[in-house]
Structure formats: structure tokens, C-alpha cells
């Protein structure tokens, strides 16, 4: 099975990747389309040229590699960003088990702006997530939707429920991982993964009320309907 996580940035997508990496029956891939995305869009992200040069950017070959890993390992967990799926034929994901990971856009934007000060709606991927979800539904697929804050609040229960939906046995190995960089990290980890590298498990969400900076309010208002649409499908 290919478990395709479609997330936005500054969620718990990396921690979830680490959780699945603890499974003995699952290989993980960290944002395999990131290099293509940067090359296609021309966006300047930290480490842009190094990322492009170090990764496969032929999307057909990326899909072939994923299929090869599935044959060898049995299960593949792909951590992906919704906005990375543009500029190429991504219909092969119709054969995947697609899981959408969502987070309140105010929390996402506040965190993202610590790395890139002027994020756009495109950067956080919620609109692309909503569009992909609708496309999958129209194609006869019903994706899974999970909320990162729920996993952080009740990790054992939420991961057990997710594994049940995936028809995989839950293992408590998924609840902990070692600190520091991981072999499965993309080379962009040095720019984005400081907090998760200090973690060993899912931490409870911050209960402090965030004050959204004024320059992010317009993007927040644009993103909110997409978040609400997807949250309607998250398991209660």
C-alpha cells in the first residue's frame, strides 16, 4: 500500500513521517516532489539550488521509484505537500491511499512566517488541498482527513484510528522516535525541522491564544474556507 499524506507546511507532517518510520513494515519518503516544485515555480526557498540538484525532478521517474519501494517493502508512507502537486500529471495518486492532514491556518501561518516572513496562500497549500480533495472525490475516491491537533492531543487513540482506516495493525512503536536528524529527512531539514528534531513524541498543542500578525490576516481569511471545508470530513 502507498499511504500518501497530503499536508500543508508547519503541521505535524514530519512527526507523522517519523511515527510511520518506526514501523517495521513501512518505508517513508520525505516530500519527493519538492525539487520539481521549486524548479517548476521558480520560488526561492531556503536551500533552493541544493535541493533541486540533490533530488530527482523527473516526476515520472519519481512515481516509478515509489512503485519500486512498495514492491520491496510492502508499504510506503509519502509525506507530501498539497501545493507540490502541480505542473505535472499526478493521476497516479488515484491508486494511492490519500490522507489529508490539516491544521488551523492561523497556527500554520504564524509558524510558517518564522521561516519565510511573507507567506502567500499558495505557500500554505490549503487551497490546493481542498482542490485535490474535491478532484479525488469526483474521481470516485474518498480520502481520509485527519487533524494534526487531534493527533497531538490523543496520539495513541488517533493513530490507532488512522491505522484502522488504513487496515494496518497499530503499534505503539509509532508513538516515539529518537531525537536529532533522521536518515529519511530531506536536505531541507536544517531550515525547517529544528523543533521536530528536538522531539521524541507528539507534544500537546499549545493552548495559548495566538495573535495573528496584521500582515497575515488577509491570507488567513482566504485560507479559512478551505480549512473549514476539509475539517468537515475529519473524523470526530
UniProtKB/TrEMBL annotation:
Pfam families: Sulfotransfer_5
Signal peptide positions on this chain: none
GO biological process: carboxylic acid metabolic process
Transmembrane helix listed as a keyword: no
Keywords, ordered alphabetically: Transferase
GO molecular function, one term: transferase activity
Protein origin, superkingdom: Bacteria
SUPFAM superfamilies listed in its UniProt record: P-loop containing nucleoside triphosphate hydrolases
Family: Belongs to the class-IV pyridoxal-phosphate-dependent aminotransferase family.
Official protein name in the record: Sulfotransferase family protein
Organism: Rhodocytophaga rosea
